[in-house]
């Protein structure tokens, strides 16, 4: 083992000078016994390598580059207990149909990718049917193509017990978790991408202490269960959508102690008319300076909202389909900067509920042709007259039974 490691180390140094020796890295992997560690000196090594046994591939120093030939995967892992450490992985293929990636893992467990830089590749890390593995302290960016032609920075499919910690993702397309369970997504920074994190039909996902900024969408949940989202910042989502959080179906979504600011929509919630029981819990969040704080498609039902600070938004609550009615909600002890009630006994709880109605000036929410007149004097006048002497009954969208009068840092 010592002799093989020494031979490979010397070959690595030689390869940086004479890159014609294209198979040196794969040969070393093939010759090395399971559970060994291959240490690479700084230089460029030919990629499109495959690892099918327990092995550690580690960069001895900065500047260890594994470079693909722009076809297929740069590193393919089909064995368990593989570690990649301190590498630069670049130049994958560009075929969407084969999910060409810098690093791909299939049918593996106890694998680790740490302190690696991934660049100029279609997909960053592609994980399929992987168990008990970690992705930590990596930097991932894409190939510089327009967003529709980029792959995902990280794709996790049909996997379980995966920890994704302290990674930085910039200028990619999406991070996706699909049909997976027990995923921890913590301490990551995602910016200038399309979907910061998209979760589909997954269970028991924890999303904590992440920073999302300048993406089209921060977090998207589709038909997922038992999702805990806490202590994140979701800021400045941009583009046509500009939505911080999208929730479509699913249930047991807990959104706690997050900051959601400077977005077109803080929350877009697609509520199913047939759903039963409490589905979404919003507690102790700061929701500020968005165009819309809560945008509901269809009904407003099965939501618990307590202890949130909601201020500086152009609209607090929007519903874009009329006539479907509202369902059961538990809404109390939130601070709303538009609340105009009194607090006679000084307990910091309003004497009257905070009710959000849909008056004439909200007709644009149902008819985009009327949106041209949004915030115009004629619509404001109609709204003032409707509140002064309603000639038709306004729609009650949401009621906070015990609104907080003075804003505090935490409730």
Description:
The protein is mainly beta and about 400 residues long. The protein has three helices and 39 strands. It has a 24-stranded parallel beta sheet that branches. The radius of gyration is 26 Å and the shape is elongated. Residues about 1-20 have low confidence and may be disordered.
Q: How would you sum up this structure in a few lines?
A:
The protein has 411 residues and is mainly beta. It has a 24-stranded parallel beta sheet that branches. The protein has a 13-stranded parallel beta sheet with strand order 2-5-8-11-13-16-19-22-25-28-31-34-37. Strands 38-39 form a two-stranded antiparallel ribbon.
- Uncertain residue segments: 1-22
Straight-line distance between termini:
61 Å
Instruction: Tell me about the largest β-sheet.
Output: 24 strands, parallel
Mean pLDDT: 88
- Tell me what portion of residues adopts beta-strand conformation: 35-45%
Describe the global form.
elongated
- What is the alpha-carbon Rg in Å? 26 Å
The helical percent reads under 10%
Question: What structural class is derived from the secondary structure elements?
Answer: mainly beta
What is the number of E strands? 39
Continuous helix count: 3
